[in-house]
Amino acid sequence: DTNKLQHNRKLFPDYHVPIPVFDPGKKQGKRSSRLREKKL
């Protein structure tokens, strides 16, 4: 997983927080952050 995170970071250097799309446990966090982005 660490390699995947580093790979994602290389692909998306602008993202401070890595987006674990393959991690089902962080689905809720991703969803809430997306809602927050919509509000902004």
Q: How would you describe what is shown here?
A:
Residues 27-40 have a biased composition (Basic residues). Residues 16-40 are annotated as: Disordered. This protein is an all-alpha fold and 40 residues long. The longest helix is centred in the C-terminal third of the chain and has 13 residues, at 27-39. It has helices at residues 2-11, 27-39. Helices cover 57% and strands 0% of the residues. The protein is built from two helices and no strands. It has one domain. The model has no long low-confidence stretch (mean pLDDT 61).
- The total strand number stands at 0
| Global morphology | flat
State the helical fraction: 55-70%
Oligomer: single chain
Order of helices and strands: HH
Overall SS class = mainly alpha
SSE inventory with pairings:
Layout lengths: L1 H10 L15 H13 L1
